[in-house]
Structures are given as C-alpha cells and as structure tokens.
Design a protein that fits this description.
CATH topology: Arginase, Chain A
Number of helices: 11
Helix content: 25-40%
Shape: globular
Strand order of the largest sheet: 2-1-3-8-7-4-5-6
Structural class: alpha/beta
Number of domains: 1
Distance between the termini: 12 Å
CATH class: Alpha Beta
Oligomer: single chain
Length: 292
C-alpha cells in the first residue's frame, strides 16, 4: 500500500461565467465518480469541502460571480495557511479569480505566486475587449490586475501575480484584444504550435522553472479544453488539435518534484457533453499525476 497523501477538494458549482450551462454539474458528478473513489487505492485521500454555490440570487451576474469568487478565495486561503494541498474543481474558469486570489492573500507579500495556465484560450479579456462579456474569458486578466475592480480586488487590492511568473500553455483560439494585453505585459505564451513541436513534457518543464524561480510557490490552472476533444470531449468550448490527455498526465507528474507546488484547479468539465466517462476518468488521472 502507498503512503496515503491528503488532498482537499473544493467544488465551484457555477457556470455563470461561461457561454453554455452545464459545467456547474461537473463537481457533483466527479464526487460520485468511481474513478475518484479509486484514487484512494493510488494513495490519495480526498477531503471534500463544503461546495461553493450561489445563495443570493437577487444580484447581477457580475455581482454573483464576485460573491462566489470571494467565498472560494476564503476557502482556499484557509487551506494554504494550514499548509494543506488543494484542488478546486469547476465549474467554469471564472473560478480561477477566487482560487488564486485566495492563495495570493495567504502568501503575499512575503512570497510571490507563480501560475501555469493550461488552456486553449488566453482568458485575458476585459469588458472593454470582450465581444461576449463572458467572465470565463477574463480570469487571467483579473489576476494580473486588469479589468473590473470587483473581480481584481478580491481579498487583495494589488495584482495577484506578476507577469513574469505566469506561463500559458496550449493556446490556439483567442482574440487580438486579449493577446495584445498579454504581449504588453510580456507574459510567456507557449502556443499550441510550440507544444506540438517540442512536446508537452519539455514545455511544462520550462514553464515550471520560470514560475518557481528561487523556490517560490506555484500552482496549475487547467482548463479541460486545453486537451484534445478526442481525449476530453466533456467541455463546452472544445477546440480541435489540443494536447494529448495521456501526454499531459505524464508531464504533470513533474510538479510533485517541486516543494513549492501548492495546488491546482481543473475547470470547464461539462459532464453532459462527456462520452463514455472519458473526461471524467481523465480528470481523476490528472489529479493523481499532480499529487501521488
């Protein structure tokens, strides 16, 4: 039997930030999943926290998402202060605003936060550049201090992450406005062409080294749509020519070698679009890769 490691799981049961509904059901399906129950046999004990879901519905969509992210930030902050490993399960990717605001508030200003963002999209719009106004396309901009103040100032008034400590991996579908923002801030983007050419293992190794400089704390934010839809069909904004699910699992094992790795989130799983529990099974494997 393996040594049992403990992992605290926070459900962000909301899809308010997305264009399509469905990802709010993801955490509940995963909690019941046989693949998640099998994680104990791999050496991982899951501790499910109280799920984060909307209580006050008499608010605007922006206010609702800000409220949810505030509660999520508090939950994550508490775990980080207690030095407990966590995984946030979305819901749509607006959860990242809460997750990493919570981590930042727990460690700043003594330590800097690094973040690896694995995604088919750049998620760096503001309301000024977004054509849809969907907040799941804005979380990275918010963490960089750009955008709506109710989202950029959760838990901590300054930007949560410095641009030099962020790496994006797998980008292949985005708009000029968000790309311009990241280029202006000089954020490192490993576009999908580079991932294909070099392999996800080598790209992820370089990204980890950049975001964990001087032994600093870092995390992983993983959008299911970064993975090729053949391997992970269960997502609302599937983009072809993505990262191999198996190769990503293998590559993510690297994070366990770094003491600064603090936790992760996996967003945009929509169980209604899954096929034969393919995505559900893969998410369990991804969690095992980062924690066992």
């Amino acid at each position: 039997m393996h040594t049992i490691k403990e992992l605290h799981v926070i459900s962000y049961a909301s899809d308010l930030g997305g264009a399509k509904t469905g990802s709010r059901h993801g955490p509940d399906v995963l909690k019941q999943s046989v693949y998640f129950q099998q994680l104990y046999e791999k050496g991982l004990q899951l501790h499910w926290q109280h799920p984060i879901q909307l209580s006050d519905t008499n608010l605007s969509k922006l206010q609702k998402i800000a409220q949810l992210c505030q509660v999520l930030a508090e939950s994550v902050e508490g775990l980080v202060q207690q030095k407990k490993k966590f995984i946030v399960l979305g819901g749509d990717h607006s959860c990242a605003i809460g997750t990493w605001s919570g981590v930042a508030n727990a460690i700043l200003p003594q330590q800097s936060l690094g973040l690896i963002w694995i995604d088919a999209h750049l998620d760096s719009h503001t309301f000024q550049t977004s054509q849809t106004g969907n907040i799941h396309g804005m979380p990275l901009a918010c963490l960089l201090g750009e955008g709506e103040s109710s989202l950029t100032q959760i838990k901590y008034p300054e930007p949560k992450i410095k641009p030099q400590f962020i790496c994006l991996i797998g980008a292949r579908s985005f708009e000029k406005g968000e790309e311009d923002l990241l280029k202006r801030l000089n954020v490192r983007i490993f576009y999908m062409d580079e991932v294909k050419a070099r392999g996800i293992e080598a790209v992820l190794k370089e990204a980890i080294e950049q975001v964990s400089q001087n032994g600093q704390v870092f995390g992983v934010s993983l959008d299911i749509d970064s993975i090729d839809p053949v391997d992970a069909p269960g997502t609302g904004v599937a983009e072809p020519n993505g990262i191999s699910g198996e190769a990503l699992c293998q590559a993510l094992k690297q994070v366990t070698r770094y003491p600064g790795f603090i936790g992760a989130e996996i967003a945009e799983f929509d169980p209604r679009r899954d096929q034969n529990q393919k995505t559900e099974k893969l998410i369990a494997q991804l969690i095992a890769a980062m924690n066992v």
